[in-house]
Amino acid sequence: MSPLFALTLYIVFAVATVVIMALVPLILAPWKPMIKKKISFECGQTPFPWREEAFPYEYFPYLIIYVAYAVIGVVVFLSSIVLVEAPHLADRILILFGSLTVGAFFIGIQLRELKQKLVAGRGE
Length: 124
Fold this sequence. Notes:
Distance between the termini: 64 Å
Number of strands: 0
Order of helices and strands: HHHH
């Protein structure tokens, strides 16, 4: 199989998967318009009418951690490819993963001390 054919096949399957994943919910989902479905909610709760911002800032650190772990996932994937091609770089990659692990533990400790305002009904 030529590399160009493999790439073309990969792109066709990727696009087909996206299209199928977008169409399956539209086909299988029940269509019953209800008022409940049109009411907005945030994080599983109905939004407070006095809130002006759409996203509570208390959840922002979790968003940052999610983005960081997405980047770490890409780094791990690319590092595994590098290890296959150049196994002599294993010590440097282990140092990188060690520093990422220490950083993740530090962030986890800091999140425990984060004050959350999740009490409903208060206008603080």
